[in-house]
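## retry 2 of 3
previous attempt timed out at serialization; input unchanged, resubmitting
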Amino acid sequence: MRAGFLDHPVPLAFAHRGGAAHFPENTWRAFEHAVRLGYAYLETDAHATADGVVVAFHDKTLDRVTDRRGAIARLPAREVEAARVAGTDPIPRLEDLLGAWPDVRFNIDVKDAPAARPLAELIRRTASWDRVCITSFSASRIRATRRLLDRPVCMATSPVGAAALRSGLPSRVLAPAFSRRWVRCAQLPIGLATAPLVGRAHEAGLQVHVWTVNDAALMASLLDLGVDGIMTDRTELLREVLVGRGQWHPR
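## retry succeeded, writing output
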């Protein structure tokens, strides 16, 4: 399998939800700001509307961050796109984001089972095989998306994969198992990013990406630990930290 998604100098800098500390999360303004800063990697979330349009949005419902209510999977695209995040910003279509910056890569968290098929169709239609990494808190959603794809794409560990790393199974067992499932990286919360776990992931052939890191000292300590990528809401801060260490690799 090609590792096109990861074919970039490390450490990788991910703009979490586009960089939610600076503009409303998962909005055009957030993504555009990160791209202007030089980010090569944008992290976002995927839901599908009732008529199969994949949108970049975190929650199952519009209630928390928009001026409308309702479950995205039960609403047509026209109603979802009429909502405004923080009362001001439209919800982007994932296909439009992919088209806006052909050189930028997208880390996509599949947030609901109905999104799997439309997302797979979107990846196929846009030939984004080497530009996306699929992740989810649900192993079943990752598995469903993988089975719907015609060719390999980068996959991140599910909680099951992270548990396998924590179990201490030898790399000779883990590496083939991850490879069969197209898993190329372990994406971990801060609390799991310990030296032993990072070492085991590397031995199994995986990069390690940590989320969501918004403190400069913590960013530095994780980089010293040898992590391969950091996801942050504070995109300006992470860039400053990486520039100061001589590790900033812009798009």
